[in-house]
Design brief:
Layout: H1 2-28, E1 42-46, E2 53-61, E3 68-77, E4 83-88, E5 95-96, E6 98-99, E7 104-106, E8 110-111, E9 118-123
Antiparallel strand pairs: 1-9, 2-3, 3-7, 3-8, 4-5, 4-9, 6-7
Length: 124
């Protein structure tokens, strides 16, 4: 009987230690965001981007070789982005884009036949 009570105490103490240990770890690993306007926006994807709509897409072709794409222009909604990069799938590098007021211009380069989809990464 004494042995059974002792085992029960050990199990209860071990269970209490486990609960306290995991609770302390959960508090140490948590992050809190205030969700205010200063939280910012960011997203990446193909097509519609989390937080932004990409529209008015226009591609520029090389005048000497129209099978080559030399640039892309598009607008972002909402117009709050401060950093934008673009890449056409099938092309190797991301291009830094410049803000032209109502649209962004990106100097992408590559074979138009290899172009599959436009990828845009934007953040404010």
């Amino acid at each position: 009987m004494v042995n059974r009570k002792r085992k029960r105490r050990i199990v209860i103490v071990a269970l209490l230690a486990f609960v306290l240990g995991t609770t302390a770890f959960a508090y140490a690993a948590s992050l809190t965001f205030n969700g205010g306007a200063d939280a910012g926006r960011a997203g990446t994807g193909v097509g519609k981007i989390s937080g932004y709509d990409v529209n008015g897409i226009h591609y520029t072709l090389n005048s000497a070789d129209p099978a080559q794409i030399t640039g892309v222009q598009f607008a972002l909604t909402p117009d709050t982005a401060t950093t934008v990069r673009a890449k056409i799938t099938g092309m190797t590098t991301w291009a830094s884009c410049t803000d032209g007021g109502t649209s962004w211009s990106c100097p992408v380069a590559g074979d138009a036949l290899a172009a599959v989809a436009l990828q845009v990464a934007a953040a404010d």
